[in-house]
# Entry
Amino acid sequence: LEVLEDRRDNLGVLRVGEKLGVELRLLGRYDAALAVLERTADALQAAGDLESLGRATAEIGLVYVLNGAAHEGARRIQEDLPILETRGPSAALAAMYGALGALFFFSGRYSDYLSTAERVADLARVLADGRLLALAERHRGEALEMLGRMEESLHAYQAAIPLARAAGDLQTLAAALYFEGYIHCFQGQFNRATQAIGQGLEISERLGDPFWMLVAANHRQRMLIFTGQWAEVRPNLEQLMALGKPPDEWGLFTIM
# Structure
């Protein structure tokens, strides 16, 4: 923090501060991450580096999610949004709206979550960013699902799937397939549900990291229960438990 204060006019140092804040978040040191990111954001704003300011503010929002302070985090991001809006469409502005959407989700503000997802989708189209558009469509599907608008939600997930596949975004692709499968399941279309969730499982396992292995086992367990494959439930549950405690970022699965 002292280095950031002393070198607040050095953009290189400030960008290191931004990366340090991210690393501290990933280590679960949320108070330290917030202190570094807030100091960095203030300096970036003073230096006029608004693109980096947007990224840092989005990270601040994610830390608030993890700290269970979603309402406060939403207010914090909304303070800086007008600054980025004056610059027009940018990846940083989209990141801020994405983080704001996550905060709305964890606050139970699903209509606002839908509005932010639609705003991110609009930005993605202007920026010609297929990966971002896929993620926005997935988030739009989640918001519609939480609002009970199941058919619209299904269409959003189905729009996200080819976009994510084309962009090579396996995380968004797997998640959209899972959620598509859940809606099919609730509609009683178990064959379609099994197919969609099974494809999501294959993709999660291809990702090959512990987080997504846990995601895959969790969704396999749900699929087995939904489809009444009771003989497989216990062995899969044992596999799920063997993977250990979910990482601190588990709560962010819905916004990744």
